[in-house]
Amino acid sequence: MKERSKMRYFIESLASCWRLINRRKPARNASGTAEDLDTELRRCLTVHDLTILGLGAVVGSGVYVLCGEVVSDVAGSASMVSYLLAAFVIFMVVMCYCEFASGEARTGATYAYVYGVIGEVWAFLCGWNLVMDHIIAASCQAKVWSASLDSMFNYTVKNWSIDLIGDLSPMTTFIDILAFLLIIVVMVTATTGVKISVNFATLLLAVTLLVIAFLVGFSVLLGDADNWTSVDFAPYGVSGVISAAGILFTAYNGFGFVALCAEESISPYTSVPKAMFTCIIILVFLYELATVCLISLTRYDQISDITSAFSSVLSALELQWGTYVIVAGVLCSVLTSVLCIHIGAPRILYAMGADGVLPRILGRVDHQTRVPVIATVFIGVAAGLSSLLVDYAYLIEMLSIGILFDNTLTCCALIMKRYLSPSPEHMDTVTMVTATSYGTFSSSERLRSSMSRIEERLKDILSVRYLSDSNQCIRVVVAFHCVLVVCSATFIVACFQLWHPVLVVVAALVSLACALSTLTLALLPQWCETNPKAFKTPFVPVLPTVTMICCTVLMLQLSTYAWLRFIIWSILGLTIYGFCLAARCDSTVT
Q: CA-CA-CA-CA torsion for 244, 247, 248, 253, nearest 10 degrees?
């Protein structure tokens, strides 16, 4: 009896712990006006400001940091396809993000979305890994900025650092003092206020676009068509194209910074979706243009310096004055990116600190500037130390995995959100729709009637027979569906890498189960907001399911360093989360 009592107590303790870490934060309805939304942050950002923030955060890395890397070492001339593939996945992700971002208008982006639908611990993993991705991105770009500036003076600072300090880190060839100083200066600038920072970013972005126009002119005058025809278009194969798309995923993450600052938007219902889609369209055009320019000027296997690809190409063409123009563009664009990261990334820490999943000191806001200063300092110090002590080659391989993981969970949260019954206080803001009411399957009345009966049968089985709580059941069903999606994507990647008949059969069966699961969800009724201003993602659950498969495939193509970073950083984060959870006596979540 004692052993049975102990076992029962142990099981009850585990169940209680599981409920505790899967608590959800109640949703709050956004409206079209800023006055109806309480926030400690300053509501001052327009559509133009949000678009500048989204573009500025990534255009420097996409054109000057990642372009040379993927063209030279990952995909060759097929980098154009990789940019388009990453853009296709990002477009689907944005469709999923917009429903949350325009409806919630809460800072924290994925962290806030997942917290409100799936649970606290999953939200923590999203926010924690997204913070790390932003720190790595800021470090990478600071090192590019440092290398570009130092190259104008024949690498005087680098040589001085090697002679004076030597190699203090096992993961770098020299101590990058310039990169560290840049991040500290940007960190101080970001604490002055979001509107001042965005205005400064606008000026820098204008210079960046002028330099890209200069590059286009150079490629038209000096480009050589043989650079496209004399080598294989995809020298690293299909796997290289997909791997490059996974790396380039972060180059389109400007929409994430728009979502992070949704709480500071004047009119989030309309401003956030417009800014997100505008960012993606402009970035696709700029990145394709930059890739064409680079390959027209040199062959992929002749790029001597991937950290400053355009400068090295113009130097090889003996156009030294042109390298100074490129360096000016690099300095401005990378500075813009680092500044925008120091605007967006602290908002994640601010949201996590305010909720108590991280030390609450991170959730404090300065009353004058309305900026989370302590969170901004944390990001600046972490990025500064990374740029100081870790080499660029290591940093670049650890990018993207946090963003891809976050996007996968956001899609899962969207599916779950559509099927969960709303609380009584929100019942008047939503309406129920069904697959048959959409009329997307067939216009035949007989088929429509059959589908209605199937739908009612599914509702009966899933909501009544096995679980008394229909929302509880929906969570189990959606979780099972997401596991099938991840397994399907894993087996698809395995088939491409290890072609084996048994593996193909298993992949086909799992994919069929995933398709049936998607069809089952599609037949169930969904809850949608009645507010006409709120963005509604189309083709749920098909669109989020396809997006999850794409994100999982891209994650599986990333390097071992990226996965090691993800695992180690997640374990460290969960340890901190455990201490914070133990320290919390009261909570605002249910």
A: 160
And the tokens for 279? 């960012």
**Whole-model pTM?**
0.84
Beta carbons within 10 angstroms of residue 533's beta carbon: 15
For residues 139-167, give the mean pLDDT.
81
Q: How far apart are CA 13 and CA 7, in angstroms?
A: 10
Which of 239-253, 329-343, 559-573 shows the lowest per-residue confidence on average (mean pLDDT)? 239-253
Maximum distance among all alpha carbons in the chain?
87
Give the integer Cα–Cα distance in Å for 296 and 230.
12
Hey, which bits of 359-516 come out as E strands? 430-433
For CA atoms 107, 113, 118, 124, the dihedral sign is negative
pLDDT higher than threshold 80 for residue 125:
yes
384 — pLDDT class (breaks 50, 70, 90): very high
Q: What is the pLDDT of residues 27-49, one digit of tens each?
A: 655 444 444 567 778 888 889 99
**213-235 b/e (C-beta count within 10 Å ≥ 16 → b):** ebbbebbeeebeeebeeebeebe
- pLDDT computed for residue 346 by the predictor: 92
How would you class 343 by CB atoms within 10 Å of its CB: exposed for 0-12, middle for 13-18, buried for 19 or more? buried
What totals of helices (H) and strands (E) does the chain contain, helices first?
A: 24, 2
